[in-house]
Amino acid sequence: MTTDPDDLGRSFDRAFADMAKAREDFNPGLTLHEVGSITSVATGIAMVAGLPNVGFEELIRFPGGIFGIAFNVDVDEVGVVLLGDSWHLHAGDEVERTGRVMDVAVGDGLLGRVIDPLGRPLDGDAPVVSSRRLPIERPAAPIMDRAPVVVPLQTGLTVIDALIPIGRGQRELILGDRQTGKTAIAIDTILNQRGKDVVCVYCAIGQRSSAVAKTVAVLREHGAMDYTVVVVTEGNDPPGLAYIAPYAATSIAEHFMEAGRDVLIVYDDLTQHARSYRELSLLLRRPPGREAFPGDIFYIHSRLLERSTHLRKERGGGSLTALPIIETEAQNISAYIPTNLISITDGQIYLSPSLFELGVLPAVDVGKSVSRVGGKAQRATYRAVAGDLKLAYAQFEELENFARFGARLDADSLQIIEHGKRIRACLKQPESAPVSVPAQIATLMALTARAFDPVPIDQMKDAKHAVHEVATRIPAEVCARFETATTLSDADRKTILDLGRSALARFPADPAAATTPTTEPEPRSAPKPAVNAQAPPNPDAAPQEES
After folding, report:
1. What single-letter DSSP state applies at residue 528?
2. Cα Rg for the chain, rounded, in angstroms?
3. Are 85 and 66 in contact (CB under 8 A)?
């Protein structure tokens, strides 16, 4: 096959003519870029000059693909919080404005993933694919867009669901000394949301890599990663990443809430968040206040937790429930950060080191814990027994402390102590083993009916498991009324109690409990003399007149 030289020449001529026309039509546009330079670099921050129009919290691009957030906007220079390693940055390097604020990828593609606050994957899988991004700092929903908290969020922990209930849209603080089980309560709550159409977001702030790996392994083992997003900053990450982590996690959670879904977010923990913000503020020469924290430390947490709410049906009806975690030092809940969070949240769950050392797990101190709005959302079946149970448990704790001094107690007091010991045994629960609603209600009803009192205390664990097993035989129509009924009928109560008593019938009666009277105290032959009836005379005392 031969080609005519004239045709080939004409083809070249047309191509060159098109290229010449395209060159003539091209009009290079000039884009204005505001460029500055680094004046100094410190750990986690950089001072930048030459950006006169930069805005507060605007994202700034540094060499090497590092970004920063403008924090201190002064006349001559800008203090920038770095969101990456700064070892390769030097004074004189050029920086550039981006014209946007910090945002994060959101969407269903994040479910089951472990990411950092910038959206980069940490689980070794492919990059996160998302069609939408949201700013990490967003205004909270207006008051008129909010709805009351009316639906409970079951944690699977009997002591919380019965005595310190949490509702969807509530903010419940978990606080206690280190190594008392704070994270375990939050993880058990996430595990209990399986099959309940609740999306979970776990935000680890400044945690050890080994602790985060253990948490992710537990979530994978129980199949909870299918509905969970894990946002992680490790202890060796820059303080800027730890600072933005909870805000990025909240934006991820808000995407699902605005889509009409129920969301649970765990901040583990905000003590590290406050410390990272204090570090950044001191490096940026902001004036320190109490405990060297800056004056706006309350505001950074209040604007974060105010984003958790329950939306009206017109706004989709979604909810965002927050479980912030705070670490106390030497049981001092009146320190600066704990009191800030207590005043911001809708209640707190306090974990006692003393109960933890006694083996009472979860080590929830019922006397110092409270839920201010969750009681309105608690199921009626719980409310029917929770009041009497909390009163009996409080009486038991008071008498138990009194009995430690060797005081002689009457039969009624001994009965209250024996009953309280069985309440405490029933509220104990192993880690990663949430209890279903029917099993909890069967146990609580058996407790209030004192069906556990004859059981020896060393067999309470087996007796509780026996009640849990028979709870699976509760009729389906009765279980359905747990969710809807305002109160249980006498027939339903009898059905549940009969099942519980049948499970406990095979346990031998405790001789000590059998000899304890259940109605009246045994009669006394003579009144006890008062301890201070005949006080020894004081020779130095002034004489008193006889009446």
Report:
1. P
2. 32
3. yes
Q: Give the model's pLDDT for residue 526.
A: 43
Looking at the structure, give the CATH architecture of the domain made up of residues 382-514. Up-down Bundle (1.20)
* Active-site residue (options: 194, 286, 372, 481): 372
Residue 36 Cα distances to 217, 242, 305, 519, angstroms? 45, 26, 35, 84
- Specify the CATH number for 35-101; select among 1.10.3660.10, 2.40.30.20, 3.50.50.60, 3.30.470.20: 2.40.30.20
136 Cα distance to chain centroid: 19
How many angstroms separate the Cα of 65 from the Cα of each of 61, 94, 256, 528? 7, 12, 30, 82
* Contact assessment for residue 207 and residue 271, using Cβ atoms and an 8 Å cutoff: no
Does the pLDDT at position 97 exceed 60? yes
pLDDT tens-place string over residues 12-69? 888 888 888 888 877 776 777 889 999 999 999 999 999 999 999 999 999 998 999 9
Tell me, which fold does domain 105-377 have in CATH? Answer: Rossmann fold (3.40.50)
Phi/psi at 447 (5° precision): -65, -50
CB contact at 8 A, 514 and 418:
no
Q: Give dist(CA 282, CA 6) in Å, integer.
A: 78
The CA-to-CA distance between both ends of the chain, in Å, stands at: 143
Active-site residue flag, 372? yes
pLDDT tens per residue, range 99-149: 999 999 999 999 999 999 999 999 988 999 898 999 999 999 999 999 999
For the chain, the domains span: 35-101, 105-377, 382-514
SS3 of 195-262: the string is CCCEEEEEEEEEECHHHHHHHHHHHHHCCHHHHEEEEEEECCCCHHHHHHHHHHHHHHHHHHHHCCCE
Q: What is the pTM of this model?
A: 0.86
Run of H or E residues at 40: strand 35-42
Using omega within 30 degrees of 0 as the cis cutoff, is the peptide bond preceding 362 cis? yes
- Looking at the DSSP assignment, which residues form a beta bridge with residue 173? 348
SS3 306: coil
Burial class, 93, CB count within 10 angstroms (exposed 0-12 / middle 13-18 / buried 19+): middle
Q: Is 392 exposed, middle or buried (0-12, 13-18, 19+ CB in 10 A)?
A: middle
